[in-house]
């Protein structure tokens, strides 16, 4: 996917709107060695635009695993489901937190957890460290 230039002011808005946290896995920028990226919810190749309502803050891992995908498989019944969209959906309506685990509680939540591998071992370790310093789950959630 070609990189799209995001003006600095728009990038700042996206980071502030997300409170410096990945809008999928909620990890705070301070708790990852990599820099969170601006994710196009609908990729440019699918006609998405680099505008605020089509952009989200995503950690490197979530952004790489999502790529330009718009759908994934619901682990419950195998159906193809549109991914969780941080601009259209409220995180708490689609996911729940159990310790350091993130569970999908809707088809979109389950499909997103599976595609983005939100509960891979290394991600749980990062969340454990974040929890130890009081940043996971985020207090504003
Ligand atoms: Zn993430």
Provide a concise account of the structure shown:
With 141 residues, the protein is of the alpha+beta class. It contains five helices and six strands, in the order αββαββαββαα.
Describe the secondary structure blueprint for this structure.
Blueprint: H1 8-17, E1 37-40, E2 55-58, H2 60-66, E3 71-73, E4 80-82, H3 91-94, E5 95-98, E6 101-104, H4 107-115, H5 121-132
Antiparallel strand pairs: 1-2, 3-4, 5-6
The chain binds zinc ion (ZN).
**What assembly state would you assign to the polypeptide chains in this entry?**
single chain
Supply the number of helical segments: 5
Radius of gyration: 14 Å
How far apart are the termini? 31 Å
Bound molecules: zinc ion
Please describe the biggest sheet, giving its number of strands, its sense, and whether it closes into a barrel: 2 strands, antiparallel
Q: Quick check: average pLDDT?
A: 95
The global form is globular
Low-confidence stretches: none
Helicity level, as a percent range?
A: 25-40%
Q: How many distinct beta strands? A: 6
Overview of the molecule:
- The chain has helices spanning 8-17, 60-66, 91-94, 107-115, 121-132; strands at 37-40, 55-58, 71-73, 80-82, 95-98, 101-104.
- It is an alpha+beta fold and 141 residues long.
- The strands form three sheets. It has a two-stranded antiparallel sheet.
- It is globular, with a radius of gyration of 14 Å.
- The mean pLDDT is 95.
- It binds zinc ion.
- Zinc ion binds at residues 22, 24-25, 27, 58-59, 61-62.
- Residues 22, 24-25, 27, 58-59, 61-62 line the site of zinc ion.
């Amino acid at each position: 996917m070609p990189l799209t230039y995001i003006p600095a002011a728009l990038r700042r808005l996206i980071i502030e709107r997300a409170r410096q946290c990945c809008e999928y896995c909620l990890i705070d920028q301070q708790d990852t060695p990599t820099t969170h990226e601006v994710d196009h919810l609908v990729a440019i190749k699918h006609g998405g635009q680099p505008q605020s309502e089509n952009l989200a803050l995503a950690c490197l891992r979530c952004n790489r695993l999502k790529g330009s995908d718009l759908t994934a498989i619901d682990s419950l019944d195998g159906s193809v489901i549109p991914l969780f969209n941080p601009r259209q959906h409220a995180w708490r309506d689609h996911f729940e937190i159990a310790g350091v685990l993130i569970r999908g509680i809707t088809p979109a939540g389950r499909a997103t957890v599976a595609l983005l591998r939100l509960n891979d071992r290394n991600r749980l370790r990062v969340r454990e460290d974040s929890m130890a310093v009081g940043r996971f789950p985020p207090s504003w959630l």
